[in-house]
Specification:
alpha/beta, 2 domains, nine-stranded mixed β-sheet, binds flavin-adenine dinucleotide
Length: 312
Amino acid sequence: MDVLVFAEVIENEVQDITYELVGKAKQLASELGGKAVTLVIGNPDVSNINSDVIQVDAGDPSPWHYAIVEKVYERVKPAAILFGNTSASLDVASQFAAQLGLPIATLVTEISVSDGQFVATSIAYGGKIMVDLAVKSPGVFVVNRGSFQAEDGKGEVGSVEKLSLDELGVSDGVEFVGYIKPEVEDVDISKADIVVSVGRGIGDEANIELAEELAEVLGGVVAGSRPIIDSGWLPKTRQVGRSGKTVVGKLYLALGISGATEHVEGVKAKNVIAINTDRDAPIFRIARCGAVADVLELVPVLIDKIREIKGE
Ligand SMILES: Cc1cc2nc3c(=O)[nH]c(=O)nc-3n(C[C@H](O)[C@H](O)[C@H](O)COP(=O)(O)OP(=O)(O)OC[C@H]3O[C@@H](n4cnc5c(N)ncnc54)[C@H](O)[C@@H]3O)c2cc1C
């Protein structure tokens, strides 16, 4: 049976979460003896989506998303439908599942097939525990960003079927009022490979400069925990965590961050390095390596050492 992916398209661009979902969909579909199919609404470039594609020319963003997903679902009859856990996709996923009476698993970080049904690993109680949910087919899965590798879903596109709203039989939808862009941001921390993140342990706004210098020598960007953003030391767009952004890059340097569950929910980088004066700080549980040290003492040494290695 096939596995359907709902592509996240913003301003006519396929977002990275889509490729993560496609990679997983391909794996699940091969286990189920089917194929991955990606539904793309709008006219973005689909040439890197490594699956079959159904592309519906309905503008971006489209007022007909709900109806389109239903019609495409009826055509494909997939065993599973994968959405990204973004505000736009979650909105469509929940309405779609409710209207069709399908089981839905949210905050999903893993999906497998066992004895003919799906098992979704999902975050519960604010990240304190992970639960395995048995989900009957056809099931709807809303997957957290950073759970799968985007690279696995990139490659040559398969067949591309272009459909109009008329061909799909979609004639009504909700009214599209407008697209509200988030605050203009200088950098998008969710797309950065190297993130130097500061927590309350940095002590003072003036010390953010140290993190900025470290980020500069490493070629990264500066982010922060919620208290840093709430204090106005960094803009909201730099917040990592449940009510901020998820970072998925190669390196996350946590400077004076305790590692509260709401914070680490947003840390999906491949390598986490933590510096904290408290050897029992929870951040060390997710750190690949760390130093029990004062950030104000260690960071200047780190900067000098990196400059020395780079020959600066
Ligand atoms: C609904 C909800 C949503 C939330 N969303 C988010 C979110 O999106 N992102 C987020 O970050 N938080 C979020 N929080 C807040 C979260 O619970 C924590 O309060 C917050 O993450 C703590 O930030 P912190 O680690 O910087 O500060 P603290 O918890 O105060 O930790 C400071 C750390 O610095 C260490 N330290 C102190 N001095 C030094 C020094 N000189 N050198 C080295 N280490 C030092 C201390 O040992 C400590 O571990 C949310 C909370 C709720 C209830």
